[in-house]
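User: Sequence in, structure out. Go.
Assistant: Echoing your sequence, followed by the structure tokens.
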Amino acid sequence: MNGLAVLREPINAGDTAWMLVATALVLMMTPALGLFYAGLVRAKNTLNTFMMSIGALGVVTVTWTLVGYSLAFDKGNWFVGGFRYALLRGVTFEPRAGTAIPQLLFMVFEAAFCIITAALVSGAVVERMRFGTFLIFMALWSVLVYPVLAHWVWGGGWLQQHGTLDFAGGVPVEMASGFSAFAAAIVVGARKDYGRQALLPHNAVYVLLGAGLLWFGWFGFNGGSGYSTGHRGVLAFTNTLLAPACTLVVWFVLDLLRDRRVTAVGAATAIIVGCVGITPAAGYVSPMSAMLLGALAALPSYAFIVWRPRTRLDETLDVLAAHGIAGFTGIIFIGFFAQLSWNGTANGLLFGHAAQLGWQVLAALAAPAYAFVGTFVILRLLGLVMPLRATEREEALGMDVVQHGEQAYTAGEGAILLTPEVGVDAPLATARP
């Protein structure tokens, strides 16, 4: 009993309770992402799109527990961690260094980040990438890409050593997912109908509900990244409300100026962009700066989303715009607006510390480059040993039937007629109401 009392003495019960809640909120974000993504695709790909997020909950949890956590948070070297925590060796109830919460809880909280980041990349390749291949890709990506970037800014890597600030994941989550999605879209290629017909979201209500749940979960994502109930966590929690609200307002204005209509999908996208933009800066900037960041983040992301369909880049759900570009904006913004009086850590350029901007810019260049190249290489190598995408005919039939033998909707316009004698190689048939 005495030994147990000594073991638990440094743990703060309030911090631990909050982090348990925050971890649950972040884990909820992955199925919320599945709902958000599922509404954005065509009806025949609803389940497959959702299942890519569900797949991350299984595959990435395993890889993170076995080796990913150790590669990210063992001291290792300037580039990547070591294997001291592999198989959770030494990950116990003792407090994680720099926190008053158990390292075991810290590990689970960080696992939730890796899980949703891998799932985010699916938005670039939905409606044509094979499900099994994507699971293997996530396993490799969650070992070779995400932990390296997490180590750079959180695990004692070179960016952290030189003072780069990233509160809740601008480097390993937002820019990594966005630029990995960019690479994935290039390697996997465009959908067969891209540029020839309108490929429209089939359920805007799913999109809005998913975005709302993501915003809700983001309070744990950002608010929990202070690892305590102290001032920085409160600041991050507050800024996670303010920044997306301003993004939403600016997005409304941009929609009205461009088309005199405000779209539901646009509103949902604005929420995500605002949450992404504030993620790296949440605990480092004042509330008024957070509102400015939310407003500014809308501009480049909106412009890219409008421009991208005119190109041959079929990055299906605009992960690059919503996460890569918005995350880039947030990382750079820290270099200007970080404020010591609010964060207790460092000032940015506007408050007398010009060097901070330099390290933020370096992070904003190095992280996308590593994520893009790492993803490109993984998918190219996978493509040598297995098909990355469905055939044109399977794509026309829909990934739900081809990859899962199920459908989200079993009746109504566009539903596939499935009978025991009709397989995926049979002529296409649709049910009419």
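User: And one key feature?
Assistant: Confidence is low (pLDDT under 50) at residues 1-8, 419-433.
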